[in-house]
Each structure stands twice: as C-alpha cells, then as structure tokens.
Design goal:
By secondary structure, this protein is mainly α. The protein has one domain. The protein has 15 helices and no strands. Helix 9 runs parallel beside helix 12. The protein starts with a helix and ends with a helix.
C-alpha cells in the first residue's frame, strides 16, 4: 500500500510540475528546433576559423548560443583543430558548449526560475573564458604540448580550395520543421516525465532530513559534494534538470543543484567521449578541473547571494 500511494503521489506531482512548466518546455523546443535547422556545426566551425583572432571570446560566444549535441561539439572542435587553432579557444569551447544553450536557458527557467537559469547561463560563459585563459597560460609554458590525439593538418590541407560554383542553400521546409519538432519534443517529454517521476519517487523513499543534512544550504560540504556527484551521475539536460528540481523539494540547496548541473553537463558520457576522441588527459583534466572549481565557486556564491536576498 505504501508503494502504491508513493507511485500515485509521485505521478500527481509530475503532472503538477508539467502543467506549470509546459509553456517553458514548448518555447525551449521551438527555440532549439529553429536554431538547429538554421545553424550547424560546419557554420559554427567556419565562423570560428574566420574570427580566430577573437579566440576565446568567439569560442565561448558560439558555445553558449548554439544547440549542439556532443557529436556536434566534437565536430566543431575538429574543425577548429584542422584550422591549426591553439588550445585556448578549443578548451573554452569544450568547457562552455555542453553546459547550456538558448533553449536550455528557457527550460531551466521553467524548472528553477529565472535567477537560477541566468546564474547557470552566465556561469557557463565565465567558465568558458576561465578555461580558455587557463589553457593559454598552460600552452604558453609548454604544458599542453603533444596533447592532441592526432596531428594537426598541414597548412596546405586547410588552405581555401579553388572557387567552385555555389550551390543554393537548402531552405527550411515545413516538413523539416514539423519532423524536428516532433523528434525533439517527444524526446524532451520522455525524459521530463521519466526522470521527474524518478526524482519524486526518491523524495518519497529518502528521508528529507538526509538530503538536507548532506546538500542543505547550511552544510559547507554540500556544494563540493554535489559538484563531485555531478561527474559520474549526470545523464543529460532533459533528464537531470527535472530530477534535480525534485531533489530541491527535499532540501537540496540551489547552490548544490547548480554545482551538480555544471560539472555533470560538462562531464557527461557524451562530453567525455568527445573530449577523449580529441585530446589527451592534460587537456581533459584541465576541462574537468575548470568545471569542478567553477561549479563549487558558483554554487557557494549563489547560496550566499540567495541568503542575503539578492
């Protein structure tokens, strides 16, 4: 009888969460679909090669304004490496790209509120810049030498090819729009309902005192522990955001939730697989270290500012 009541109660909370958040989910899907059909990894890589002097700034800007999946992020980085770009803009992109995007900003705003969503988005920008600066310092001292998994292409291989007649760009059709909307929307709804339900079930099974004791706002180890747990336990944004939203109702502080999402998003299985395809462990360690330290600082700062009413 306990489990039946728990399941029914969890389903009720999931439905309540959905009725509150469905406008944000719909807008995030619409924004993601439009950006995905208008922008792609080839255009992003070409933009970064054209603006290579902007380096870290350009990489971070592209990273937080494009809805690239792990494979898309890897493709952009490969394009940057083919253009013989230094590690600083590449690391900036590796840090910032998995964390957020315009549709992710809207999605997280629905679940956590705009202050949390903007903190997450701005932290992604700051950490991209921080990672790029750290990579610049390390590379200037020779610490990132021979860290690519493959040799950069020679200049002749990346020089502009002979002009060819331009083919007309493929325009967005209603069929493309409807198909991508259906695909992205069904995926988002599946993850939302599945993992929101899992989160509310855990709320009913784990005593609230335990969550508060470990991840509550008054626990100095809560934020670092949440940042560390994000490394192996994060799934993806569609799944982890609703599950963390449910954990907040059990006593997890918002700073701990923010720290978990920052480290988790940047070190998910897809992100790690992409990084290890491209770079060796010094670069990967730099990315992970930037994310963990940045997550801890961001989490503590958010809790502090929330505590004083800002």
């Amino acid at each position: 009888m306990f489990f039946i009541d728990l399941i029914l109660n969890s389903l009720s909370k999931v439905w309540g969460s959905f009725t509150h958040n469905w406008p944000f989910l719909a807008v995030s899907v619409a924004v993601g679909v439009i950006l995905k059909l208008v922008l792609d990894q080839k255009k992003a890589a070409a933009f970064l090669r054209r603006h290579r002097r902007a380096g870290v700034l350009a990489s971070t800007a592209v990273a937080v304004t494009t809805p690239l999946c792990s494979c898309g992020t890897t493709a952009v980085i490969l394009g940057m490496m083919a253009g013989s770009m230094p590690w600083a803009p590449i690391v900036a992109f590796m840090v910032a790209s998995p964390l957020t995007s315009p549709e992710g900003l809207i999605y997280s705003a629905g679940l956590f509120g705009w202050p949390f969503a903007w903190a997450f988005y701005l932290a992604s920008i700051a950490l991209g810049l921080l990672g790029g600066f750290a990579a610049y310092v390390f590379e200037s001292r020779g610490w990132l030498k021979n860290q690519a998994r493959f040799l950069s292409l020679p200049a002749a291989a990346v020089s502009p090819p002979a002009p060819v007649p331009a083919s007309p760009e493929r325009r967005m059709s209603f069929r493309d729009l409807a198909g991508e909307t259906l695909r992205m929307g069904s995926q988002l709804l599946f993850f939302f309902f599945t993992f929101a339900f899992a989160g509310f079930m855990l709320n009913g099974l784990i005593p609230q005192e335990w969550v508060t004791a470990v991840f509550g706002g008054g626990r100095i180890y809560g934020v670092p522990l949440a940042a560390t747990f994000g490394l192996p336990f994060y799934i993806n944004a569609e799944a982890s955001l609703p599950m963390v939203r449910a954990m907040l109702d059990t006593g997890m502080s918002q700073g701990a939730a923010l720290a978990f999402l920052i480290t988790g998003a940047g070190t998910s299985l897809g992100a790690l697989a992409g990084m290890l395809t491209i770079a060796r462990w010094r670069v990967v360690g730099l990315v992970i270290g930037t994310l963990w330290v940045g997550a801890v600082i961001t989490g503590f700062a958010f809790n502090l500012l929330s505590g004083v009413g800002l």
